[in-house]
């Protein structure tokens, strides 16, 4: 790893305080480019970058790597490692509506969970909890008992290490308490545990949501936001609850809102049936 890349990684770790997962993604993507070019990133020309990344068919993956490289270039320019301020244009990706589930669909799916043992109670509680709080799966798995304050969840390690509070629905809290009371492992650091009493992994959480709902854990976050928007919640309130740094990130849900308005008109307006 070049000294410039080491300096950038230190910057996003100490100054920007990005999450460990984000830092590792930057490290992986930028090291991959540097290793492929066999030279420092500051010495790589644009043609070489496109040769290295040009074979990536997935536009989202390509944009992630280009975005990481742009952040690095901006850092180098501001710190005078490179006198030229340059930036790569990202590929245009069509804005698709986030995949989401209705509350009825979620209730039907989790209704198949066998809650006779503590593992079943855990799965039931976790799926309800994800939908009730809109938390990222990384945030959910990081939760400790002390982070539940009455009917509120304190998320300490959101993106950028930003702390926020989210109310928890009574039904989710009830399911959580039933799981905790049945668990053979008490006084463990984290809330969600596997059968060995260790912190549940992201892969295990993904398998649980796939098994009962056929989606990823992130789809429950989308479902939470969509339910709020369709219920009339203000976009800035949803931004705060989701922990989005920018309102632009939350605005994708306005597409859901517009779709709902259109369906309402088509269903109820007399001219829609003429």
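Sequence proposed for the structure above (274 residues):
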């Amino acid at each position: 790893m070049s000294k410039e890349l080491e300096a950038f990684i230190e910057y996003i770790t100490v100054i920007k305080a990005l999450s460990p997962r984000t830092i590792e993604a930057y490290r992986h993507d930028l090291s991959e480019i540097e290793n492929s070019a066999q030279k420092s990133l500051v010495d790589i020309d644009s043609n070489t970058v496109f040769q290295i990344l040009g074979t990536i068919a997935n536009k989202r993956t390509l944009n992630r790597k280009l975005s990481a490289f742009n952040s690095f270039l901006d850092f180098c320019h501001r710190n005078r490692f490179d006198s030229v301020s340059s930036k790569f244009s990202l590929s245009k990706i069509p804005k698709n509506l986030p995949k989401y589930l209705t509350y009825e669909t979620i209730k039907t799916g989790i209704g198949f969970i066998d809650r006779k043992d503590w593992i079943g109670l855990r799965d039931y509680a976790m799926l309800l909890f994800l939908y009730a709080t809109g938390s990222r799966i990384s945030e959910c798995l990081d939760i400790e008992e002390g982070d539940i304050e009455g009917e509120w969840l304190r998320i300490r390690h959101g993106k950028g290490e930003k702390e926020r509070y989210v109310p928890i629905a009574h039904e989710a809290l009830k399911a959580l308490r039933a799981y905790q009371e049945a668990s053979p492992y008490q006084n463990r650091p984290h809330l969600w545990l596997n059968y060995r009493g260790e912190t549940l992994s992201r892969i295990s959480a993904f398998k649980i949501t796939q098994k009962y709902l056929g989606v990823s854990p992130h789809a429950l976050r989308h479902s939470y936001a969509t339910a709020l928007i369709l219920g009339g919640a203000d976009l800035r309130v949803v931004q705060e609850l989701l922990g989005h740094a920018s309102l632009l990130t939350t605005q994708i849900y306005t597409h859901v809102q517009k779709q709902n308005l259109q369906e309402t008109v088509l269903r109820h307006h007399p001219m829609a049936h003429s």
